[in-house]
Amino acid sequence: MIRLRSESPYSALIRRLEDERHVSKEQFREALKVAKDEGRSVISVLLDDRSLPHDTMLEHLGEFLNLPTVQLRDRVITPYVLNLIPRELAEAHRVVIFKKNQDLINVATTDPENDETIDFIRKHTGLEPQVYVTTARDIQHALRRYQGDLTTEFSTMIENGLKEIERSSDS
After folding, report:
1. Could you tell me the pTM of the whole model?
2. What sign does the dihedral 43-44-46-47 (CA atoms) show?
């Protein structure tokens, strides 16, 4: 069984979440076990747990990590910005670029402690990432846009092809 020691980096977080009755010690222990078993951070596990109040968890985890939070479901993300990283990377690492401003990109993730992914994005894009914490639901919402953009692009191509056929048959 995993014990929460007073020197654990998550002790203050679990006390706060428990005091406000958002997470029990048992739920937190289970999150620690899952994180260890899957090689993930406990923050990522908590943000992925759909049984927990996700907006409240997001707020508390952002405060604990001293990082800004973002709700992607409330954002318009341009296809250009979304595609700065491949969909496969976004899905595998639960990370989405949602805004670009000159040499800075805003990166939303459920695993802000994953420095390797953030470093890869920095090298891949040549831009400086500003990390935001978000929920798994918000990442999934943004990932659906990859598919939506592709569907829209194919629909446009098909429509243009049909119009071209109609024009050539009319002449």
Report:
1. 0.72
2. positive
